[in-house]
Amino acid sequence: MSVAFVKEPNEDQVEVLPDRELGSDPNLVTPRGLELIDREIAALEKQLEEARAAADKLAIATINRDLRYWQARHATAEVVVPPDSVATVHFGSRVAIEREDGRRQLFQIVGIDEADPAEGLISYISPLARSLIGKEVGDVVKAGASDAEIVEILPDSAEAALS
C-alpha cells in the first residue's frame, strides 16, 4: 500500500475546527450586549496568548475558532438603543408579566448572544419576545403553554423589583 493512503498520527497536526454557526437573523444587540461581545473578544485574546505560550495546539485552534465567531458577531452587531417610551414593548424593554397562576416575572428583550432566560434575558427571536413586541400594558400574550398579562413596561435602563 502506498504511504499516500496511510494517515499517520502527527502530534504537530491539529484538525481544523469548523466555524460556529452565525445564524441568519439580524445581529441586534443592546449597548450592554456589545460590551459583552467586546469583553469576550478580550478574554479570548488573552487565552490565545496563554495557549501560544504553552504551545497547546488544540487550545489555539479552539480559541481561534471562538475568536472568529465573536469578531464576526462584533462586525455584524446592530446596536439598538431603545426609545425612552414605555407605551409599547420593543427591543430592549423590560417587561413584567403576570401568569394565570399569579406569578410575576420580569424579562428583558435582548440580542441572541446576550440571552440568558434563567436571568430573565430573552432573545428577540424567542416565541415569548415575539408575542410581547408591540404590545401594551394590559394586553394578554401567549407565554409558554398558558397566557400572561403585561403588567408593566420599563425602559432598558430601569431597574424594577417585583414583589
TrEMBL record:
Domain Transcription elongation factor GreA/GreB C-terminal: 88-149
Stored Pfam families: GreA_GreB (PF01272)
Keywords, in A-Z order: Coiled coil, Elongation factor, Protein biosynthesis
InterPro entries reported in the protein's UniProt record: GreA/GreB_C_sf, TF_GreA/GreB_CS, Tscrpt_elong_fac_GreA/B_C, Tscrpt_elong_fac_GreA/B_fam
A GO MF term: RNA polymerase binding
Organism superkingdom: Bacteria
Coiled-coil blocks: 34-61
GO BP annotation list: DNA-templated transcription elongation; regulation of DNA-templated transcription elongation
Database matches in PANTHER family: TRANSCRIPTION ELONGATION FACTOR GREA, TRANSCRIPTION ELONGATION FACTOR GREB
Protein known as: Transcription elongation factor GreA
